[in-house]
Design a protein that fits this description.
Helix content is 53%, strand content 0%. The chain is an all-alpha fold. The relative contact order is 0.20.
């Protein structure tokens, strides 16, 4: 399973939240799910993989803005997209599932 597929599974298993990477109940935001999906790697590799995946998602969604803001995940384009009031867990899982099966992103 690739990073996107694993992130979709993380959201299905733990639930979805907004405004923080992980809430007190263990639910994750989109970016938090990507970070958790890379847990088999070193911390540096996980953050790098999540950032690359999030940048690819931001490009696919046409979201503008900085792609990596150390210490402020709320400014990340993926975080802004997933934290939007109209965004649902289903939207995020659907996006990750679609990207998991995108041949152009093979190996992500």
């Amino acid at each position: 399973m690739n990073l996107f597929g694993e992130a979709a599974r993380v959201l299905a298993d733990y639930g979805f939240c907004k405004g923080e990477l992980e809430d007190d109940a263990g639910r994750r935001c989109a970016l938090g799910a990507l970070l958790h999906a890379g847990l088999g790697s070193s911390a540096l590799d996980r953050y790098a993989a999540a950032d690359v995946a999030a940048e690819r998602i931001a490009v696919n969604l046409g979201v503008d803005g900085p792609h990596s803001i150390p210490g402020d995940s709320a400014l990340h384009p993926l975080a802004r997209w997933s934290d939007a009031p109209e965004r649902t867990a289903k939207d995020v899982v659907l996006l990750f599932t679609e990207l998991a099966h995108d041949p152009a992103l093979e190996g992500s």
